[in-house]
Structures are given as structure tokens and as C-alpha cells.
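Worked example 4.2. Below are the chains of a multi-component assembly; read each line carefully before continuing.
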Amino acid sequence: MKSLCRNEFSEQVVALQPYLMRFARSQLRNEVWAEDAVSETMLAAVEKPDAFAGRSQLKSWLVGILKYKVIDQLRRHAKVASTLGSDDNEDLEELLFQKDGHWREMPADWGCGMALLEKRQFFEVLERCQELLPPVQARVFLMRHWLELESEEICKELMITSTNLWVLLHRARLRLRECLENNWFDNGEKQPRGGSGTNLSGGGALAV
Amino acid sequence: MAAQEPTCREVARWLFSEPERKLSEAQREVLEPHMAICDACVRVRVQVKLMNEAMAAWRRYREEDDELPFR
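Applying the procedure described above to all two chains together yields the following C-alpha cells:
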């Protein structure tokens, strides 16, 4: 009877593999690392089914384990995970600001935005916008906002300086701001800027 | 000697880095006079506030909603 329960538990864990993979892919931006993190998560779960007390949903419990396994992967591959690609080096500020430091275009009024936090579509756009972040910016952004690590921990795990981290987070947020402005708050007054990787209107765009 | 007025580009860097890097006293001293005359930076400050508040809600949302369009 006990082994049957264990089998059922294992089946439920395996069934959640695609759910776990999407988080791992999103955070790690590397298919092999993501598969390793998810495999280790599922293995840890099925080896110790008794650790799942049933107080939370199984998937929440697994995501909790996955977060540790994802950090293990980042630590293991720190050097590669923090090596900037050409996308990460693209200077969005040059597109957004004039030479004298003024905004090229007036930022949109997001004043009534708080109500948006109740809207599912807003989070869909936010999700898509973070997918467009260059790899290293995406990793540090999600370490901060999904894994909820403090700056010092991120610097330690990725072996980067605090100045590097601030630059990466600043660039990621500036890019997200631009993407949200173009794809959610845009009231038709302006055209999305090309080349900055912040326009969702390419393939598979959201109807926003 | 009065500190130099920041550009909008610098203000955006300060505002977007604030969750990790608190503004210095010197930065705060020159920020508010800039805000008083710059509508663009006032809007950006609202945007930053909204984005910061959206992060916690987004974290919950993406873990609870099975239908979010992940790849």
C-alpha cells in the first residue's frame, strides 16, 4: 500500500515537470541547466515523499525546492552565467536620452496604473517583457525578483561586483519600463523604438 | 558650493537603482529641485513606484496561474 502511494506521489511529481521547466528556463536561460535543476528537484522530491507535509500545494512545494536547485546551477555556472553577450551590452540609454541627458520622448503617464495590478493581462505583458531581456540582465533581474535574493547574495553567487549588479539591474528595469510603455501603456501617441528589443509586436505578440 | 543639477538620464539611474542603492544626501538635495521643474522625471518616478509594487504581485501571479504564456 505504501509503495502504491509512493508511486502515485512520483507520478504527480513527474506530471509537474513542464510546470517546473518553465520557471527554470525563465531564470536560467539555458536548456541544459534548466533540465538539470528540474531533474534534481524531482529526484529530491521522490526520494523524500514524507517531507511533503501536504500543507501546501504540491506544485508550490516543488517550486520551493526548485529555487534552491536553480541557485545551485547559477553557482555552478557562475562564470558563464554572468558573461555579457552583445545584447547585454546594447546601450538602451543612447536610444532613450538625448546627448544633453534629457528624455527624447516624454514618458507616458502611468498614473492610474495601480488598478492594473489586478489585471491578468498586465502580468502577461510583464511576463513577455521579461522574456525579452538579454540573458545576464534576465538572470540577475529574476534572482532579485523571483528568487528574492539580496544584492550581496547575487554578487556572491555570480561572482560580480555590486557596481556590475546595479548596472545590470538598472538596464533590465529601463528595458522593462520601455517594453511596458510600448506594449501596455502606449496610447497610440508614439511608435515603439526599433532595435531596443522591447517591442512585443513580432511573432506571437499579445493582443494588447 | 551648490551641487550640480542632475540630468534626466542620471535621475533615471538613481530611481531605478534605489531598491538596492539608497540615495545619498547630496543626491536627494539636488533631486527634489529637479523634480519640481521636470514633468518627465515625475512621470518616471511614478513608473518606478508602480514597477516596484508590481514585482511582488507578479511573483505570486506567475506561480499560481497555470495559464500564463510561458514559452
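Take a moment to check your reading of the output against the notes. Chain B touches chain A at residues 7-10, 12-13, 16-17, 19-21, 39-40, 43-44, 46-48, 50-51, 53-55, 57-59, 61-63, 65-66, 68-71 (CB under 8 Å). The helical segments of chain B are 8-17, 25-37, 39-64.
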